[in-house]
Design a protein that fits this description.
With about 400 residues, this protein is α/β, with parallel strands linked by helices. About 30% of the residues lie in helices and about 20% in strands. It has 14 helices and 17 strands. The strands form three sheets. A ten-stranded parallel sheet has the order 6-7-8-9-11-13-14-15-16-17. The radius of gyration is 24 Å and the shape is globular. It starts with a helix and ends in a 25-residue tail after the last strand.
């Protein structure tokens, strides 16, 4: 460890990003490391022995720090949040810090309130219940308080206070929100209220209505479709016709157990920016679903990644549409009823670099035609699959993984 410190003393000025996640270093060693990297902008101390006092040192030494992850640091308390802020007016504020993760620490609502009041630069604050804390702070003065926050992320997950009440505060106090993630029983009025976020680019909707048709996102798409760059929808109804017509800036789409509205027109805009499409559980109203996905694929000529999971009756018509994508590099089939003859067609796609097959009932890992292509493929494609994938039920119905830990500035 002494050798590492010695090297950092010489080269530390050049380090911009430092990852010490799960490090067993002592507090003294961590302190020594921090003193050696004055120009670091991204620091990951997740699950380390970081303390409130070390946060004071970080603030003093790392004046250009932009991103700090101290999640799962059990020694971090509200006092540490005070140390990060200019509460006592003894020195300058930590104006460079924009991203802070304090999940699973000892920080309480009091500490979060300190951050909100005294760290105006913060844009991404990762803390469970943040939306409710800010609501409680300003529910009585939302229209009279001139304060506005730079927060970019709004998350709501079923709470005693209704989504509408919380949104009425957030849309006023946090005008720069770019990402909205909601898990609740969502109605049309809630979605229309979300349109007040003037900078919104990423929308994630997880409806807990039992039937997907209970939540329709079309009213939102009509009003804000052109602004979106990412759309993730679970257990709701979507109109691909509207999406293709209005959401021409989308880069990523994720559908999980959605219902598709029928449509008549097929002469629509191109989604030239769309590079990633994920479709899971495409089994409700199958005719409309396949018709919609084919339209979406045909409109997305620049698609590079396609994930199709838990889909029955995979058709040659769908395969034809996919194989027309000249820039497709990755296709992922998971528990899809795709036969060997159809699958083999994808190996002839000259730009494909990865084909993944997990749990597809009609494909055996011992199939000679597949194995021959894996071992001797002129296009250099790679093929992988999971031989034993028995715990299908282990995947959460809410699929939290889609945005876990994502930070985009």
């Amino acid at each position: 460890m002494n050798n590492i410190i010695s090297k950092l003393q010489v080269m530390g000025d050049a380090i911009a990003s430092l990852n010490l996640e799960d490090s067993s270093c002592s507090l003294d060693i961590l302190s020594a490391i921090i003193c050696c990297v004055p120009n670091v902008t991204c620091l990951n101390l997740r699950s380390t022995c970081c303390t409130d006092n070390l946060l004071s040192l970080i603030k003093k030494m790392c004046i250009s720090l932009n991103t700090l992850n101290i999640s799962e640091c059990k020694n971090i308390t509200d006092a540490g949040m005070t140390n990060l802020c200019n509460v006592n007016k003894k020195d300058g504020g930590f104006d460079s810090l924009k991203v802070l993760n304090i999940l699973k620490t000892q920080v309480t609502h009091k500490g979060v309130t300190i951050l909100l009041k005294h760290l105006p630069s913060i844009q991404w604050l990762n803390y469970e219940g943040l939306s409710m804390i800010l609501y409680s702070l300003h529910k009585s003065d939302v229209h009279n308080n001139p304060v506005r926050y730079n927060l970019r992320n709004f998350e709501y997950n079923q709470a005693s206070i209704t989504l509408r009440q919380v949104l009425e505060v957030w849309t006023v106090m946090c005008p720069f929100v770019t990402r909205v993630s909601i898990q609740d029983k969502i109605d049309e009025n809630d979605l229309i209220l979300c349109t007040k976020f003037q900078c919104l680019k990423k929308l994630k909707i997880v409806s807990i209505n039992y039937f997907p048709r209970g939540t329709v996102i079309s009213p939102f798409i009509t009003l804000k479709g052109p602004m979106l760059t990412e759309l993730k929808v679970m257990h709701a109804t979507v109109s691909v016709e509207q999406i293709v017509k209005l959401c021409y800036n989308l880069k990523k789409i994720f559908f999980f157990n959605v219902t598709f509205e029928d449509f008549s027109s097929s002469d629509l805009n191109d989604l030239n920016s769309l590079t990633s499409l994920t479709v899971k559980h495409l089994n409700l109203q199958r005719d409309f679903a396949f018709k919609s996905i084919i339209l979406l694929i045909k409109a997305s000529r620049n698609l590079k990644e396609l994930y199709i999971h838990y889909v029955e009756h995979f058709s040659d018509t769908l395969a034809d549409a996919i194989l027309e994508l000249g820039k497709l590099k990755l296709i992922d089939f998971c528990f899809v009823d795709i036969g060997i003859p159809t699958l083999l067609r994808f190996f002839s796609h000259e730009n494909m670099t990865k084909i993944r097959i997990d749990g597809c009932p009609l494909v055996s890992n011992e199939d000679s035609s597949i194995m021959r292509l894996v071992s001797d493929n002129q296009f250099g494609n790679t093929c992988s699959w999971v031989i034993d994938y028995s715990e299908i039920g282990s995947e959460s119905v809410w699929d939290y993984s889609v945005w876990s830990g994502e930070i985009s500035l």
